[in-house]
Amino acid sequence: MRIAEERFNAFKAMCSPSAKLYLTYSVSGGQSCSPYIAKLKNLIPCLKEIEIAKLDADEFAFSESSAYQTAARYGLYSREGVTIRKLLSENEVYSDKFDYIDNVRFGYAADHSIPDRSANEQLYGNKMRVSATSFEEYSKCPFRFFVSYGLKLSRPKKTQLNSLYWGNAVHACMERVFKKYAKAEFIKLTDKQLEDEIISAVNEFCETEFKGGFSKKADFDVFIGRLKANTLRVLKRIRTEMHGSQFVPELIEYNIGGENSALNVSADGHSLIFYGKVDRADVYKNYYVRVLDYKTGTKEFKIDQLYNGINLQMFLYLYELTREGGRLGGMKPAGVLYVPVISPDNADGRYVTQEEIQGQINKSLCMNGMLLNDADVLRAMEQIDAGTSGKYIPIKLKADSTIGANSNVTDEEGFEKIKQMAMDELVQMCSDLYSGRIPAAPLEIKGSSFTLCESCDYQDLCANFDYEKIKREWRDSYDMDKTAE
Ligand code: SF4
What we know:
Radius of gyration: 29 Å
Bound molecules: iron/sulfur cluster
Low-confidence stretches: none
Distance between the termini: 74 Å
Shape: globular
Helix content: 40-55%
Oligomer: single chain
Strand content: 5-15%
Number of strands: 8
């Protein structure tokens, strides 16, 4: 029945053209052509068979749109491209497009703005929802944000066992363990009990994401084995850290954002709702709160990242939780911490002794972030001896037990200023996007040997051929007092 239907559809399609009919088939990869082609060849022996690559440009240019695409395919400055451009010169839409490409090619600043507010309203709605990830994308390159989150254009991604799955699996394990066990129980779990929990959590995750391990390739088993071993190392480390800490997990995988959130901002009659998920929030003495974020990358926290709109989301979470009326309203900020959840497995045998291996694990799992400059609160996180550095938190104590200069700390006012800076960024983002200010202006990431554009899928859309001309310089400083006014 289905074959008959398909035959009918093929017949119908082949009878429909008014001028020409092209039937195409792939010759790559040793594929045999469709049975319909073979049948047609038998029925109509004079059928002309040609390679697409050998067709002239005019064979593709049936309409203005296809002519323009043909010009793009052959190169706008090729013989074919120039001819087509001449033909389309009377058409305002296409002549604008050609001019635009000239501008980019010959180094004039390309204007990506969309001044039509109603078009932007259609794109984002009256209330735009912005996630922590997309907020950072916007800070890196507004045009990239526009294409990715506004137009929602993205290259289809192949499902791979990559760091995304790794991160999701580790999150699932952490969520399961911390929701099941209060801190007092968790720190008493034996290695075996911890391992059993991880095995169950990873198996459950595999069942949901991959429908189990049945009929998967051998590398799937290797991936899962490494994932379990890694997560065990991470959880053992957290168990030891919690042993010496007086902070207690209070919220796990907690959703931030919504109609009543303080992270909703407005600009020029439009609103932006910021949302995200707190991986974990710990509380000390029912008064101090620290927000923790599990990180699969090797991301290191630096204060100047905040001046460039990077890593601001944790400060927004902290604010939303501790503000009056917030979930932990009335409590004070004790800091934000990134918790690495990937540690090396020493698969290449580089480290030989147990001390070396453990040393490497400890180094890779050190937390980083920004903490309150209150020695009592810091000691509640970790007992650090005078003149030494924390094993878990990024703090160094001087010989007199005061906080060392290289420690990432700030006071309550500092947290307030960072929060205000982040809120100002959100307001600016709301205003810019509804006004259509979306420049292709990639942030030059300090310390990175790659530019954002090198790994960007949208280079053909922004037509950025000259990175040096459009890059945005990294800000090394920021007038925090400006935001506090
Ligand atoms: S290629 Fe560069 S400038 Fe263009 S959208 Fe991507 S990041 Fe932005």
